[in-house]
Design brief:
single chain, mainly alpha, 7 helices, about 80% helix, elongated
Length: about 160
């Protein structure tokens, strides 16, 4: 059986960027689909179906605020787990190179998100998610700040003996 040593590191930010991108796109597409099928006769004729669609729309719209909790939770988890890692300070420079790559990756994902949401089809739907749009637009800055914080926490854990 393969046992993977799971520690907090700067590589976690690649997974976080990917998770945020996928989550935001899925939520916007789900609301878009919900808005399109609301006018279908099957759902307008049945009161239960119409109520279910209304509840699902409310749930999807609340994801704008929940997205912030997801971001804060993932960030805290990564920073706290980085505090439990003992790394030699020589790896700080390797971490900075990884952080630069993560920032470029975040910029790519941020631009891809804006390309997807700025299409005529999804522009109206994505306007409902102001917080999500703001965070995804500033994703490289966020990754830069949190990546530096993770690197500092990892270095401080080395100074204090892990």
């Amino acid at each position: 059986m393969l046992k993977r040593n799971r520690k907090g590191s700067l590589l976690d930010w690649f997974w976080i960027v990917t998770a945020l991108f996928i989550t935001s796109i899925v939520v916007i597409l789900a609301l878009f689909i919900n808005n399109k099928i609301t006018d279908v006769a099957i759902f307008t004729d049945d009161a239960n179906a119409a109520a279910a669609l209304a509840h699902s729309k409310d749930t999807l719209l609340s994801m704008d605020n929940l997205f912030l909790f997801i971001v804060v939770g993932l960030s805290l988890f990564t920073v706290c787990s980085a505090a439990m890692v003992w790394n030699h300070p020589a790896f700080f420079f390797v971490g900075m190179i990884l952080l630069a790559i993560a920032i470029m990756f975040a910029a790519f994902m941020s631009n891809a998100y804006e390309d997807v949401t700025d299409t005529e089809t999804l522009q109206e739907t994505s306007a409902n998610f102001t917080k999500m749009n703001f965070l995804m637009g500033k994703l490289p800055y966020y990754i830069c700040f949190m990546g530096m914080m993770t690197a500092v926490v990892m270095y401080l854990s080395y100074i204090h003996g892990g």
